[in-house]
Amino acid sequence: MNPLQRLRARRREREEPLIDVETIPRRRLTIVLAIAVGLASLPMLITYILLILTSFSNTAGMLTISDLAHYVPTIQPWIDFLEGKVEPTAGHLYTTMEILGIILNTLIVAAGVSIVVVLTSTMAGYAFSRIRFRGRKALMQLVMILHAFPGVALIIAVYALYVWSLAALPPSAWNTYAFIYVILSRASLEIPMSIWLMKGFFDKIPWEVEWAAIVDGASRIRVWREIVLPLVKPGIAALSIFAFLAGWEDFIYVWVFLKPRDIYTLATFIEEQVRNLETAYFPVVAAAGTLYLIPTIIFFITTQHLLLETYAGGMKA
Amino acid sequence: MGAERLRSFLTSRRGHLAFFLAPALTLITIFYLVPLILSIYISLTPLKYWQLNRYLTDLSHPLENYYRLFYLVTHHPDIGKVVITTIVFTGLTLVVNVVGGLLLALATYLMEERFSLFYRTLWLLPRMTPIAVYSLLWYYFFHGSRFGILNSILLSLGVIHKPVWWGVDEKLLPWGAWMILVYVNGLVGVSFGMIIFYSALRSIPREQVMAARVDGATTTQLIRYVLIPSIKWHIVFVTVWELLSLLTTYAHIFLLVEWGLIDKWWGTTWALFVFNTAFTAQALDQGLAAAAATVLVAIGLVLGLITLKIMGFKELMIEPRGEL
C-alpha cells in the first residue's frame, strides 16, 4: 500500500461510522421519515420561496400560490428598490445613494462586529487554553454565565451609558460614535460564546509545537501570532463568518442606537417599510428582504458542514 | 522610560496574560458587568425619558418601581395579559422546541445520510435568517388579507370563506396570537434541540445500536430503550437552556406586534414588555423597565447556574498543557 492509499483507507475507516450506523436496510424507514419531515418543512419552504418569487414579480401586493400559474418574472421590484421608489404612487422616497448607504451601513456593522469578535476572542481563547493563572476557572465560569444573561436587561443600562457618554462628545462626532458603540456593544454579546469556541480550537493544537519555540526564547505573544494563529485558521474563519452574520442580522441594537440618528440598515429599513405597508409596495420590501438574505444563503450553502459542526461544538461547550 | 517599562511588563508572565485577556475583559466589563449593576441601580431610581442628570441620583423611594410593577401585574388588565402570555408562550414553545427537536434529531439520525444532511441544514435556516427577514416571512404567511399565504391556501381549499386576521381577530384571541408566537419561535428553537440531540445520538457507540438490532429490536424499541435513555442529560440541558432563551427572546415578537400581525397585549411577553417600557415613545419609563428586567435577571441567574451544573463544567476545563 502506498502512503496515499493508506491515507484513503484510514479516512474511509474514520468516515464509515458516519455513513452506516444501522445494520438493517432502511430504505422504507427513510422514505416514511423523509415524507414526514418534508411535510413539516413545507410551510417554511413555501414562504421562503414565495418571498423570493414576489421580489421578481409584477404583482401589486403579495404573491399567492394560485398566482404562480401565470407568473412572469421581472426584475422591476429590484430596480424600484435600488432607485428608492418604495411606494407605487409617491415617486422616489429615497435616492439610489441612500439605498446604497443603507446596504453599506449594514456591511459596516457586520464587518465591525466580526473584526472585534475575532480579535478579542482569539486572544482570550488562547489565554484560557494555554496559560495557567489564578481565577482561570472562575473567570471562565463567569463568561459562561454571562452568555445566559438576558440581553433585554443589559440594553437599558448599555443605552444609559451611551446617553451619558454622548454628552462628553461634540455633536459632530455623534454619528461615528453611534456606529462604534453599536459595533462594540453588539460584538460584546458574541464574545463569551466565541471565547469558548476559540478555546476549543486552541485546545486541539498540540502543545509541543509552541513549546519548542518558547524554549528557544520566543515570547508568548510572538509564538501566538506566528505559530499558533496559522494553525487555527479554520477556527478563525468559522468565527468570522458567525460574527459577521450576527452583526449583519442584528435588529435590536441598530434600532436602538442608529435609527434615532436616521441611520438605517437593511433591518430597520424593512421594519419601516412594512410598518407603512398600506402605502409601501410589497415586492420592493420582498426585494430588500431577499437582498438581506443573500449573505446568509451564501454562507449557508458553502459552509453547511462547518456550520453544523461548529454549532454542535459551540453549543455543547 | 515609559516605553521601556511597558516592554518589560509585556515580556513578563503577567504581562502576557494581561495582553491576551485585556481586550475581551474590557468589553465584557463595559458591556456586561457595569450594565448589570447599573441596571439594578436604575430600578431603584425614578429614571424616565433618559433624563439621567435629573433622576439618576434620586434614591428617595428605592422600591417604588417594584411596588408599581406589582400593582400593574395585579390590577392592570393589559399587564395581566402580558404575564399570562409569557407563561403560556414559554410553556408551549418549550414543549414544541424540545419534543420537535427530539423528533427531528431521531428522524435525521434514522434516515439515510443524504436526506439527513439536507433536512438538518434546512431546519437551521430559520436560525440563520436575519430577524427582520424572518419576521417578514411570517408576516407574509399569517397576513390577514386574502393574499396572506395561509389565508390564500385555506380560501382556495374552501376551508374558510373570507380571510382571517389570525393574530388580532377578537374571536380568535388569545389563542390566535399565541399560536403564531409559538409557531414562529418554535421553528427557530427546534434547530437547537435538533443539533444537540443529533450529535449526542451520533456519539452513542454503534455497537449498542447494532446489538439491539441483532436482538431483534424494532425501531420504536430502539428509540425507547437505547436512544432516549442515552441522551437524557442532553434533554435536560436543552430544556433548561431553551427555557432561559424563551424567557428573554423578544426581537421577532417586537416586529410582529409593531407590524400589527398579532394583538399588542396578547402578543407581548415579559421581555418585550421590558423593552417597550424602556424604549418606545409611549412609555420611556426606564426605572420601571429596569425593575421588570431585574426580575428576569433573577430567574436567568438561577437557570444559568442549573445549566452550568448540568453541563459538568469541570470536565470542560482541562488543564493547560505544559507551562514554563
Search tags:
heterodimer, A: 317 residues, mainly alpha, MetI-like fold, globular, B: 324 residues, 73% helix
How would you sum up this structure, described in words?
The complex is a heterodimer of chains A (317) and B (324). Chain A has 317 residues and is an all-alpha fold. Chain A has a domain at 96-316: Orthogonal Bundle (MetI-like fold), CATH 1.10.3720.10. In chain A, helix 3 packs across helix 13 (282-302) and helix 7 crosses helix 14. Chain A contains 14 helices and no strands. The longest helix of chain A is centred in the middle third of the chain and has 35 residues, at 96-130. The model of chain B has no long low-confidence stretch (mean pLDDT 88). Chain B is mainly α. Chain B has helices at 2-11, 13-42, 52-55, 64-75, 77-110, 113-122, 125-128, 131-142, 149-157, 175-202, 206-214, 219-230, 232-248, 251-258, 270-279, 286-310, 313-316. In chain B, helix 5 runs parallel beside helix 10 (175-202). Chain B is globular. Helix content of chain B is 73%, strand content 0%. Chain B has 17 helices and no strands. Chain B has a domain at 76-280: MetI-like (MetI-like fold), CATH 1.10.3720.10. The longest helix of chain B is centred in the first third of the chain and has 34 residues, at 77-110. Classes of the chains: A mainly alpha (317), B mainly alpha (324). Chains A and B meet through helix 1, helix 2, helix 4, helix 5 and helix 6 of A and helix 2, helix 5, helix 6, helix 7 and helix 8 of B.
